[in-house]
Structure formats: structure tokens, C-alpha cells
Task: inverse folding
């Protein structure tokens, strides 16, 4: 098991870097996970991460990228609901990478 | 994938939601299949109809209540959900006891429509005949 260090507290991650317990997630944890990928988080990143956490809260799953793209478009507008915008924010894959930063499991439907 | 091959998949669910892993595994496979843009339909027969029961609570059994995830099927464009009427009748259930699973019809100005069809066994048999793949859980 790996872990990350957040404010002196150790949070467990799985072999792919996803948090084992999503309730341990904090915005600081997201920041540290993003630092590992050398990605600077902007308001647009946070918007997607919070969207994912809300989606998980409601449906108990992290959505696949196609579903995420559509749902973002509906909620945040067409200019954000497209792969180009989302891949620019999260170059390693908007569902996979954003879910990891957001403390969620790997999306259902990702291999 | 080399070609854009779409097959008709029917997932048949016959078991109660908790006590075995079948229901949850089936749901995950359905979502994965749908993410690969296959033509997916799902049937609930026998104790499988309990999977769609609304207001589920797992507080007493220490398992995750995954029933909210069925509401995401519409987002995954799984819009053909068939429930066997006789199985409902045998268990004293009606359509009103089931979760209200819906999808938005893109061809109809995103109108919200029910995904659930209550069908009899003849209709289910016909449905199974039309499939390329039938997976039973």
C-alpha cells in the first residue's frame, strides 16, 4: 500500500494512486495528488472535481468519460461539455485523473 | 477496437440485490458494456425484481446500498429495462414499488421518459430471441 502525506496525516492510496477511503479526501489532498502529476489546479479543475464528487454522492459511482462529458455539458454549459476542454484540464483523462484528484475510485467502465 | 461493431446485449438478473454479489457485478458489467457503446438492455426476473425496489436500506446488513446507481443507467444510455410482470405479481409488488428510472430522449427535446417496461413472459422470450448475447446473473 502506498500513501500520501496531508498536513502530517497519512492517507492510504491504492497501487494506481486512488484514495482507498474517499471520506478521507480534502482539498489539500487533491492539491498533493495534483502536485504528483505536476498539474496546477485552477477554478475550472475544482469545478469538475466537485461535480464528480456530487455525482458520486448521488449515484454511488464515478461516471465513465462519455457520461461525464455529457453531464458536464448539461450542468455547466456546452463550452465545457466537450472532450477538448476536459482533456486540456486533465491531460491523463478527465474521468480517471479528475476522479483520482477528487478522491473517488476509478470510474466504472475504465480499464 | 478495429471496427465499430455494435451487438445486442441482454443482461438477465434473477437474484435478490444483497446476499450474493451477482446483482452488483451485473450492474457493473452493464455499465461497462454501455460505456463501449453497445446496444444494451436489461431484464429483471424472479427475485431480480427486488433489485429495482425503491427505498432500499442496507443499514442492518453492513453492505453498501448500490441501488442509487441504477439511476445512472439513463446517463449511460441504457434505456431498455424490462421487468417481468409475473415475478412482480408473485411477490406482491407493482410498478409503483420500483424506482422511477428515466432517461432523456435526445430526439424529443430531452424529454424525460421512463426506461422501465413491465412485460409478460412471452414478450421476454421474444426479447431474448432478438439478442446477439444474453448474459444471466
Result:
Amino acid at each position: 500500500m502506498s500513501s500520501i502525506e496531508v498536513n502530517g496525516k497519512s492517507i492510504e492510496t491504492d497501487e494506481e494512486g486512488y484514495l482507498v477511503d474517499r471520506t478521507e479526501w480534502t482539498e489539500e489532498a487533491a492539491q498533493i495528488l495534483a502536485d504528483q502529476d505536476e498539474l496546477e489546479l485552477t477554478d475550472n479543475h475544482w469545478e469538475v472535481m466537485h461535480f464528480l464528487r456530487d455525482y458520486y454522492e448521488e449515484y454511488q459511482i464515478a461516471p465513465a468519460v462519455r457520461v461525464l462529458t455529457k453531464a458536464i455539458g448539461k450542468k455547466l454549459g456546452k463550452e465545457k461539455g466537450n472532450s477538448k476542454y476536459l482533456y486540456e484540464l486533465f491531460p491523463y483523462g478527465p474521468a480517471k485523473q479528475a476522479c483520482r484528484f477528487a478522491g473517488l475510485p476509478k470510474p466504472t467502465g475504465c480499464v | 477496437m478495429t471496427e465499430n461493431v455494435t451487438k445486442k446485449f441482454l443482461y438477465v438478473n434473477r437474484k435478490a440485490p444483497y446476499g450474493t454479489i451477482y446483482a452488483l457485478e451485473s450492474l457493473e458489467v452493464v455499465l461497462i458494456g454501455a460505456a463501449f457503446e453497445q446496444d444494451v438492455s436489461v431484464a429483471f426476473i424472479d427475485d431480480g425484481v427486488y433489485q429495482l425496489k425503491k427505498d432500499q436500506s442496507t443499514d442492518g446488513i453492513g453492505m453498501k446500498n448500490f441501488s442509487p446507481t441504477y439511476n445512472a443507467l439513463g446517463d449511460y444510455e441504457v434505456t431498455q429495462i424490462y421487468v417481468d410482470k409475473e415475478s412482480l405479481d408473485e411477490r406482491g409488488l407493482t410498478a409503483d414499488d420500483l424506482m422511477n428510472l428515466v432517461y432523456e430522449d435526445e430526439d424529443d427535446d430531452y424529454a424525460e421518459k421512463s426506461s422501465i417496461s413491465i412485460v409478460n413472459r412471452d414478450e421476454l422470450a421474444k426479447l431474448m430471441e432478438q439478442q446477439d448475447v444474453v448474459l444471466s446473473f
Q: What stands out?
A: Chain B has one domain: 8-136. The first helix of chain B runs from residue 22 to 35.
